[in-house]
């Protein structure tokens, strides 16, 4: 059984034949879908309306990294934003972010990739140092000092995954259980970080936030 995963495209990655009929002996839950990355840009623009250029932190070698960037670029013109890519190579990221921050009205988006884990604290520190409003993909990054996040609710995904485990133990075949995408997402905002960046988070956004860290 293939369980909860951050893989955005399990079909393209070769894990399953289709989402509805996985085939083989696998099934599970994909936490992220490419289309949700557009919401990261929209959130960033709402929090920091003066931002006109956004750097997307991603791994260019991963198919998911390319797809996240494409989805963000698709909505960027309507928001008056120019989008560029910043690699997450540990040896280069500090230099790359520092160079990107050289002009005003800039912000960042941190996309899901296994290669951001070793540098997540550095990314949060660089965003603070260079006054770069940054939207992340998961709550724990905001709890660690990031500005805001929009992503799947892990507790809900694990609960749903446990339901699949129970059904399989009762005799159902994993291949007959469709691969599911996240159905419950959460918005988290760190007001302390917003204040440090000189940002006034709109009350309309605070009203719909699932959690506000003060």
Describe this entry's structure for a reader.
There is one protein chain. The protein has 214 residues and is an alpha/beta fold. The protein folds into 2 domains: 4-31 and 153-181, Response regulator (Rossmann fold); 34-151 and 185-213, Rossmann fold, CATH 3.40.50.2300. The chain has helices at residues 37-47, 63-75, 93-100, 120-129, 139-143, 154-169, 191-196, 203-208, and strands at residues 4-5, 29-30, 53-58, 82-87, 106-110, 134-136, 148-152, 180-181, 185-190, 211-213. A 7-stranded mixed β-sheet has the order 4-3-5-6-7-9-10, sandwiched between helices. A 3-stranded parallel β-sheet has the order 1-2-8. Strand 6, helix 5 (139-143) and strand 7 form a beta-alpha-beta unit. Helix 1 (37-47) crosses helix 2 (63-75) and helix 3 runs parallel beside helix 4 (120-129).
């Amino acid at each position: 059984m293939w369980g909860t995963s951050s893989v955005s495209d399990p079909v393209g990655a070769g894990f399953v034949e289709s989402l509805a009929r996985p085939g083989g002996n696998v099934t599970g839950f994909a936490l992220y879908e490419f289309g949700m990355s557009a919401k990261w840009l929209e959130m960033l623009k709402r929090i920091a309306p003066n931002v006109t250029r956004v750097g997307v932190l991603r791994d260019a070698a991963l198919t998911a990294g390319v797809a996240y960037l494409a989805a963000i670029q698709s909505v960027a013109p309507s928001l008056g934003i120019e989008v560029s890519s910043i690699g997450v190579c540990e040896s280069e990221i500090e230099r790359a972010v520092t160079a990107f921050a050289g002009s005003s009205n800039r912000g960042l988006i941190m996309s899901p990739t296994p290669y951001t884990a070793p540098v997540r604290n550095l990314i949060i520190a660089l965003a603070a140092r260079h006054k770069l409003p940054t939207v992340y993909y998961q709550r724990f990054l905001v709890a660690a000092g990031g500005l805001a996040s929009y992503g799947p609710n892990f507790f809900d995904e694990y609960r749903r995954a446990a339901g699949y485990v129970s059904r399989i133990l009762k005799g159902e075949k994993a291949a007959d259980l469709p691969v599911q995408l996240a159905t419950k997402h959460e918005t988290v905002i760190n007001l302390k970080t917003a204040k440090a960046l000189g940002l006034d988070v709109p009350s309309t956004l605070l009203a719909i936030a699932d959690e506000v860290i003060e």
